[in-house]
Amino acid sequence: MIVTLCQFKGGVGKTTSAIHFAALLQAKAHTLLIDSDPNKSASLWARKGLLPFDVCLEAEAPKRLMKGNYTHTVIDTPARPSSDEVESIANGTDLLILPTTPDPLSISALIQMAGSLPEGTNYKCLITLVPPPPQKDGTEAKTALERHGYPIFQRPVRRYKAYIHAASNGHTVKGPAQNDWKAIWEELSDELG
Predict the structure, then answer these.
(1) Among 102, 103, 112, 150, which is least packed by CB within 10 angstroms?
(2) For residues 124 and 139, is the Cβ–Cβ distance under 8 A?
(3) Is residue 65 within a helix (H) or strand (E), and if so which, with residue range?
(4) Domains of the chain by range and CATH?
(5) pTM of the complete model
């Protein structure tokens, strides 16, 4: 399965989500995360060698895919792809994940991205960096996207300091932050069959 994370806006948790989707898929079968973002954030995260899956830069991907025995591929794309790139990305993936934070500018970019996708694209929106209660930003964003018919993961990814520690120490999140990903995995695995 090829899972691609894409968004017009940066800072929406795209790389963090790519890392954690790759970890979820690796639990089932050998997975490669392709870092095609010029910032190389996924590669920096992986530099300590503690992630359970392989990570490579986009230029290395063809060779790695030919030599490796990968069942799954996760692609972390650069922010703000052109319309031609959006079409290629959508046509080259099994599932396109559009992460967004629950703020109006990010939601607007997500709506613009979803509107630019070719008809029939299998995509799903993921709300990230959701602040803790009593703030209702995440719930309000989810309700608004659902009301307009966007396919969305039911469980948002909450904002935890654990992500800062995970990125700087080269591993995925543990503890309460991991529960969001477990719920997302249940939903994704139901969808995969």
Answers:
(1) 112
(2) no
(3) helix 61-67
(4) 2-183 (3.40.50.300)
(5) 0.94
Measured between alpha carbons, how far is 132 from 72 in angstroms, rounded to an integer?
32
Q: What is residue 14's three-state secondary structure? A: helix
Question: Which tens digits make up the pLDDT trace of 121-169?
Answer: 999 999 999 998 899 999 999 999 999 999 999 999 999 999 999 999 9
> What are φ and ψ of residue 125, in 5° steps?
-90, 145
Q: What is the DSSP string of 83-144?
A: HHHHHHHHHT-SEEEEEE-SSHHHHHHHHHHHHTSPTT--EEEEE-SBPPTT--HHHHHHHH
Residues near 99 by Cβ (< 8 Å), separated by ≥ 6? 5, 7, 12, 13, 14, 17, 125, 126, 127, 128
Select from 11, 21, 6 the least CA-distant residue to 181. Answer: 21
Quick one: tokens of 20?
Answer: 């954690």
3-state secondary structure of 171: coil
